[in-house]
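Why do we care about 3D structure at all? Because function follows from shape, and shape follows, mostly, from sequence. That is the central idea of this module. The next example makes it concrete: a single protein chain, its amino acid sequence, and then its structure expressed as tokens.
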Amino acid sequence: MSDKTFTTLLLGDVYGDPGCRVLYLKLSTLIKKYRADFVVVNGENAFKGFGLIPGQVDMLFGLGVDVITSGNHIWQQEEILPYLDSQNNLLRPANYGNLVQGHGYTVKDGVCVMNLQGRVNMFPIEDPFKWATDILKKLDSRVKTIFVDFHAESPEEKEAMGFFLDGKVTAVVGTHIHVQTMDEKILPNGTAYITDLGMCGPKDSIIGSDPELAIRRQLTQMPLKAQVHDNVAEIHGVCIKSDPDTGKAISIERIDG
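And the structure:
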């Protein structure tokens, strides 16, 4: 194994203004602390919990984020749609297919980031396993460091993707749930894995939303729209060290706070 390491921060779903603020205040310190070479952030909930807007994309790139991934909420703010075509490093899940705006993967500075979305308990879009396979076939053989943001509901589906891609990519990290899991590991063939990165968003919230309103939704079953809980926020995600010559993961460490 090479004596060099490549350090990457992968951070969970940015939720509303609190999530944006905590990255504005703390991301540069986090990058210095971990001596990060590359930063990936899921931004799909940055605008009031639903989607993101061009100004937030510019802000995240300005803070040192290399690639912004997303998920099922990426389509909710109409003004972002032209940005999906013009910004190569702003991704939407690849398995929405080729008839919609945007890019499902990118290669920046020799690093590939792939964005996929699950189908279990979610909208039945195209097969993410097939899309992952097809994208890997397109990559230049010199691209060794490959990260996959799998935006999915089901832990079983996420774990299946992890083992499916084990040894083929550097890491498979789950997003969407907003609750950080504690199952970070290196799979048998050298791929780092975690079921969910968690959320860059408000503490003491219900997956980012106001607890009072969320409880009322459960008690009444009324279709009340979630509202961002305006509270102090935390950063959740992982730091992955990998061998740039092989793309194999060396370590994965949870970021919590």
